[in-house]
Backbone:
């Protein structure tokens, strides 16, 4: 397949493009700077501009664009940027597909577990209602923008959970502390994080290119775990203690609203659509995932 990727330079984008190329797919990418190879095409999503040649002959478009949710404090300006960096690129891609006589057959656009807000211990499947909060609002708009793609395009919105990687991503700041034995759970640790390893995210995106699925798809591992269990397994795999719990009031004092929506929110997400379609995880169990993160798989 010829696949166009937006956001290919990020953590997930790098893994997805690498996996697709290893499988023999022809991958081309969108870049904001002048292209440096025949596999790159320039665009300016903030202005709604794109080189339409990027979509010529494409079988699928993968949209991974968006500013990092936890990279900076949530000032009013940053919140506007978080939304615009998702809606602008998504609408630009949908509009470009609408201009084509034969648009790509598949539009795989990333969303996030934040769609569900904080739902305690309730099991969240793809048909669960949208939650409350800023992230839920952003995700709802993000997904709606993807569905502006022309009729006949199979649109999949991948609600990705907390991505476990050996470096960067959700564990970018926590993992070094755990390696030093000075990390620990966040808040009371009873909030559920819908975790998934980076290789399984890449594998899921490749699977979704041809799987008979459309609409929202939860991208997470089949084994649910709260933060206490997640941190305990990572610490065990690293042969380090994890005793230094960070209380919720401290997180709120330092991070404000970001703490409640990103770190303390509970989302017991279930990958019902992926499992039902026959997807196979490399790391379906938390112990396997922790061993992979620690480099002990």
Residues:
């Amino acid at each position: 397949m010829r696949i166009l990727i937006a956001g290919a330079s990020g953590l997930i984008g790098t893994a997805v493009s690498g996996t697709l190329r290893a499988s023999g797919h022809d991958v081309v990418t969108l870049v904001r700077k002048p292209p440096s190879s025949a596999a790159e095409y320039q665009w300016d999503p903030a202005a709604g501009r794109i080189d339409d040649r990027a979509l010529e002959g494409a079988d699928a478009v993968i949209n991974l664009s968006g500013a990092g949710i936890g990279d900076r404090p949530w000032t009013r300006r940053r919140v506007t940027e978080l939304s615009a960096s998702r809606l602008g690129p998504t609408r630009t891609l949908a509009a470009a597909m609408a201009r084509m006589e034969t648009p790509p057959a598949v539009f795989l656009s990333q969303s996030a577990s934040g769609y569900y807000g904080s739902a305690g211990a309730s099991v969240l499947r793809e048909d669960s209602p949208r939650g409350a909060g800023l992230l839920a609002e952003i995700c709802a708009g993000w997904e709606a923008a993807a569905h502006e793609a022309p009729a006949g395009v199979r649109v999949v919105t991948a609600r990705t959970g907390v991505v476990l990687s050996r470096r960067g991503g959700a564990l970018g700041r926590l993992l070094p502390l755990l390696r030093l034995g000075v990390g620990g759970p966040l808040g009371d640790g009873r909030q559920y994080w819908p975790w998934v390893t980076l290789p399984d995210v890449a594998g899921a995106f490749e699977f979704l290119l041809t799987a008979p699925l459309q609409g929202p798809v939860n991208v997470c591992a089949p084994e649910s775990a709260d933060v206490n269990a997640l941190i305990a397994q990572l610490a065990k795999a690293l042969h380090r203690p994890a005793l230094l719990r960070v209380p919720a009031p401290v997180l709120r004092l330092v991070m404000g609203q970001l703490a409640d929506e990103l770190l303390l929110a509970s989302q017991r997400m279930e990958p019902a659509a992926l499992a039902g379609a026959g997807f196979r995880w490399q790391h379906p169990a938390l112990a396997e995932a922790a061993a992979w993160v620690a480099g002990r798989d």
Notes: The chain has a mean pLDDT of 93. The radius of gyration is 19 Å. The longest strand covers residues 106-112.
